[in-house]
Records
---
Amino acid sequence: MKKFLLTAFFFYTCFAFSQDKIELSPNGFPTVTIVKPNIPLENLIEASKSWALFYNKKGADVYEVTSNSLKIDALKPSAFHYYSLGDPYFFTVKYTLAVEFGEKNYTLKFTVKEIYMKDKLIESTIADYFTPEGKLKEGFEEIKPSFESTVNKMISSFATYIQK
């Protein structure tokens, strides 16, 4: 019986986290829907709060907490980068992760609120790195894969953490 439960858990975990990787567009990232674990809602909300502090070592603001949702604001250092003439440029983002638990699934919405370079707020948005046709502007090709990697790791971390 123990072997069966372990095998079932393994397949459930693989299935639950096998979602497609989300991609960056000029509008930001799409909302992600994940199968909700069979854990009481109160525990999922508390686990989400705990993850916010675990994942964001320099602190996070958890707010708009309801019985089935919450928002997390934090800074993500080195969220994305690009190289210009061989010099690396790393950006920190202030983000909001909106979490909403439904009956069978939950959604995560990652939104960029501010972008910083060397602790200085810059006057650009994600859309500024794209052309009007939705293609990355020349010289900024590294932004998309580096930011997608960051956000996909964050989502995977959240999903794994609240599963416990």
---
Amino acid sequence: MSSLTMEKSSRLRDLTRLGFWFTLLIGFLLPWAIMLGVETWVHQVPFARAWQSFTLHLFAPGYNLFLVGVLTAVPFVILAIMILLHLGTVDSQQALIARRRVLGLLTAELVMLTIAGWTHISVLIHPDAQGALAYFYLPALLLLSLPVGYGLGRALAKALVPRVTA
């Protein structure tokens, strides 16, 4: 194996690990970060008081912010596993395929983050009696948006990433 091939393989392996852990962290922390952000910036609650309220309501009946976080995280866990399986199986010799897969997975993640963020912000800014139902539909919506975002990313990659001729 040549030095250049080993370097490409190492970069792809590092990118796969980074994408996996970033996706897991974002999936678990996004809803809670948005909750704290809305409390502090929109409702003008001091951060210390917002944090105390958040920790009190993490497992409280009627709130259960932990369940909201887990429901949001499940599709991101599936995306993280997809990153491992999809990028981890690419041969380092096939740089074009790796680039297209990376752009597809990145687009899928951005679409999912946009939908999840918008849903959480909308529910928190405009509270409604039925607004919390959005948290139960959100995982299905995110799972449906995963292949759509991936397909969009692959289409963009096909149009933007030039074919390498050897």
---
Amino acid sequence: MDKSKKRRLIYRIAALAVVLLIAAAMFVIGRGHTVYFDNKMPENVGTEVNVPYKIEVVVAGKSVAKLKSGERGMADTMGQNFNMQLLVTKEKGEDPTRLQVGLTLPYSMDGIIINLPALLSGLDESAYLSEFVYVPSAEEMKDEEVITDDTDNQMNFEG
């Protein structure tokens, strides 16, 4: 192999390596998530958890949810590291307590539910972190037309 062919091959390999590094960085940095916040009793934890009267969730300096007991809010975020401030009012009329919380979001989940009372109680990640799965309502299911056989709606013409 002459000198110019070696140099060309080295440049091509270097360019491919740079493209792969940029792709890996964009995968980590650019991964988007929808994060849902619940202020309700967590399911299947086996222990009693105190549900605060109100929790305000602040992400990137903006209030994204003000949740009273039993409510859900949401925020969209980019990347795997998620930082939020929680203004927790345990009982009606009390002053809120400010908490700073940082989490690493799993790559495998697009819609993530964070149960805030379970998180604040110090329970395991499996108790406060779950994947959001959309379940259509009965009315939505009723409106959907289900075709089971392609020949049901065809007319037979002989000519």
---
Amino acid sequence: MSELYQEMIDGEWVLRLPPRASHESICATLHAWVRRSILPATPMQLLESRSEIALAAGQVFRPDLAVLPYGGGKPFLVAEVINQEDHHPDTVLKKDVYEALRIPRLWMVDPRYENVEVYHASQHGLVLKQTLMIRETLEEPLVPGFSLALKLLFGGTDSGAPWGAQKDF
């Protein structure tokens, strides 16, 4: 999806800018690697990138990646790839909602700095557990077997998820 889209945040429709090619490549890589880790018998489903999810009254989001229990329900893993021209809704507004809803895991993927912030839900809200840099590996215990070297996410190539050589963020 490389066109404008809308999300409802706190009851207000917010027009979001179309993602750049590099953003879409990162999303495709994340999806490919999470998909590899979800076995057919696993009770979880990976939604298509920016699938519309009604999380609560007045909250209709389209996250870059969402993993839900099979059959529906609240996501237990959400990833937002930050767009530098349009980051406030993801990094502030939506993050506050994810925190209030106690989404178990949130990945904030920042192409500008080639890092991933990993948040865990706690009784006190979202807690930053890790900030992973380009030379590190993202692993997620909630998705058994998931392991992704960030160098592949931010600039490498992988046969399962092609990466465009041009960084346009």
